[in-house]
Amino acid sequence: MDRKKQNRLSAEWAAYGDALGFMTELADASRVQYRIGADEVQDTVPWKRKVGGYSGVKVELPAGTYSDDTQLRLATSRAIRGDGAFNVAAFAKVELPAWANYALGAGVGSKEAASNLARTSATWYSNFFDSKKATYISVGGNGAAMRIQPHVWAAPDLHNLNSIFLDVIRNSVCTHGHVRGIVGACFHASSLSFALLNGRAANLAELKVMVNQLRSVVDVVNNDGDLRMFWLSVWSGCNKISFEEAVAQVVQEMLDDINILEPLGEGILEDVYPQAVNALGGLTPSSRGSGTKTAILASFVSLLADTSAPKDALLKIVNVFGSDTDSIATMAGAIIGSCTDQECEGAVQDRDYIRVEAERLTLIAKGGEASSFRYPNLRSWKPARAAVDSIGIIDGHLWLNGIDRIEAISSSPVAKISGDLIGWFRLSFGQTILVRSRSEPRNIARERVSNELNLEKSESRFAAEPPDRLRDLFEQDEGQKVSNDGHGKVVTSGLEGLTLNEMLQKIIGGGFSPEMIGQALLQQVDEGGNDFVERGIALTSNVLTAYEARVKRRRK
Asked: Which of 67, 139, 283, 451 has its CA 20 to 30 Å from the CA of residue 321?
């Protein structure tokens, strides 16, 4: 099969599904009528939507306008370097805080996560926020699943799911701390990989096999030093069950959901899809945005869809009002698009840029020489704390901080909202965004943005693999074990010989005893090795994050 064509059509149909579904997302019939002036969606058309919350304004949206699903998919794509490595730090600290300014139709959890990542102390692996609107460990929606397709499109080996899962998980934990959000994203990645490999969507029996394979998510996390040391250790301290138990529970939930759909699996899509949505709770506010249920529904639609007419299948999705239409349609569009020869002819915003990124990811998958997006130097990078300040001025020109220079679209009017301005702008590389800025934007220091020439050539994927960024500090090698020669060794409250992860669990279990924490830090020197400073920093970071999470729970 032609991977280049598959990736391109998958990307286009995913964006088209998003644009169709955005018009009906979580809306009833009266709201759909207000938005598009019709009783149901037949194609992408110009429409109107209120943005900015209760004090917001009505904005005219061009035909084919896509939502946060495609916005974050493009952000994910940019963060995949030309050598295939996912620059998760840039995604978390540059892309997500910038996206908070131009987000369209985003869920509460993702917006809170992006806002928190603007804090200096927050990183991709420690974004354990707890706000009045959302809590990190409870965010299990489809905000991750809807954006992870680029990791599959760029994958050189679609059979190697664990390799794909690693980047999908790293991407997901930037914003989602509930296992449903993480596992749902991995399931969609698996379903899309299957479609690219086989030229068809998986049947229900094959989907069950995929779901059972998701148990390997536990091994993927445990085998990655960054995830295990800096993310899992804190996650475990914030939850009452182990990560393995949580994954097992979600896997069983997904198997149960697929079993519910089995009686509908031989039906006609138009007849059975509304039943499927209702059966899985797709119309219930508490579950309709679930990271697992929406991914399952997208795969179910893809199974029954006529691949010679992808648009018909997507229209069935987006006209089931009250459901999460854009996310289900965008995930189904990605799967169906990889199995069809049918061109996507409906209006899609930024189609040319979407194609460019799809082709770049194909080049990466084939091991060719591909370009990389240039981000600011993250060692000195500080995102704008307020999303509105992500739009600033450099040398008299407006910039989206850390990303690129923006130009106003002359045909688009600028509206006022709570003293700020909102209007359509275009980034130089071809993406269109609806930005909010101050009436007098602040100046941005030049060193805080990417180079104006924001594309650079990188070596082939096969020329040299990037080195691991962090050593496995939580596991001791032979040179780090406690010596028995009696010189300078202080006995410490049962902490001897423990890995940092085990030590952290003991500290949490002991109620964060100051004496135990101090002894644990000093022990990093006592146990020898040249990396005692790095080990001490790793331990301190995780102890403080876990302690903060516990204090916040007590205050509630």
From this structure: 139
